[in-house]
Design a protein that fits this description.
This protein is α/β, with parallel strands linked by helices. 34% of the residues lie in helices and 13% in strands. The protein is built from 6 helices and 6 strands, in the order βαββαβαβααβα. It has helices at 19-29, 89-96, 138-150, 168-172, 177-190, 211-242, and strands at residues 7-13, 53-56, 74-78, 122-128, 155-160, 197-199. The protein has a 6-stranded mixed β-sheet with strand order 2-3-1-4-5-6, with helices on both faces. The relative contact order is 0.17.
Length: 244
């Protein structure tokens, strides 16, 4: 239930960058089985997400059923992919402030009426590692990262599909010196601390549970939760200051 969600995480980034697959991978990491169908994912076929949709992160049993008795404190909000023309700054801010309803699409997004009231506590910006230096939308993504930072919303850049550049990363989960160079480059490009640049690998083509991939995706979640705790504390302090 939405009123029990403690951390709302907005997933935002390039089309086909693995946002929906990341949701499935996180579900898999806390479950006994691989959860490929939790969120509809396009894999290598490109972007299939066409609406704003929330996914409360829950573990799955070996029978493939959601264990709703043990929900986590995380709700992911998936979005359709960024290109060179969609998403105005106003539309992005509305998503960040939680003014979009579950099921909003690119057409209904033009409505100015706030449809829900659950602001995001954190945002994950997705960019395939292979496109860090070449994609024309990277600069647009950087502008949205700056905007989120100005709004004091904790932001992470997720360097997705990292195994396509460095295959050994998926086998070990260890950030090698070569991968560290890419992390440093992204930190400079997006003006974020290196700890907020997180390379990931998804379960898209992995049919069985894999310890290294679990470790990789849970690393991103752990860093987000730690940063969000500070964000929530600052927000609470601001509220308290109004009444003192």
């Amino acid at each position: 239930k939405e009123d029990n969600v403690l951390i709302n995480v907005l997933l935002f980034g390039l089309a086909g960058s693995g946002k929906s697959s990341f949701i499935n991978s996180c579900a898999t990491a806390i479950s006994d089985v691989v959860c490929q169908g939790f969120a509809k994912a396009g894999g290598t076929q490109g972007n299939v997400t066409t609406e704003f949709k929330g996914y409360r992160l829950v573990p799955f049993t070996t029978a493939g059923k959601c264990n709703t008795n043990h929900p986590t404190c995380v709700c992911f909000w998936d979005t359709w992919g960024l290109d060179q023309v969609n998403y105005s700054k106003d539309e992005f801010v509305r998503a960040l402030k939680g003014e979009l309803a579950d099921g909003t699409n690119m057409v209904t997004l033009r409505s100015k009426k706030p449809l829900r009231n659950a602001p995001m506590h954190c945002i994950f910006f997705f960019l395939p590692l292979v496109e860090l230096y070449i994609n024309k939308c990277t600069q647009r993504l950087a502008e949205f990262v700056t905007l989120a930072t100005q709004l004091d919303v904790p932001a992470f850049v997720i360097l997705s599909l990292a195994d396509r550049v460095l295959p050994d990363f998926a086998k070990t989960g260890v950030i090698s010196p070569e991968l560290s160079k890419h992390v440093k480059a992204a930190a400079l490009q997006f003006n974020l601390p290196e700890v907020q640049i997180v390379p990931v690998v998804n379960y898209a083509n992995t049919p069985t549970k894999d310890h290294a991939i679990d470790k990789i995706v849970l690393r991103a979640l752990e860093r987000a939760v730690k940063l969000v705790q500070g964000f929530v504390a600052r927000q609470q302090q601001s509220v308290d200051d109004l009444y003192t």
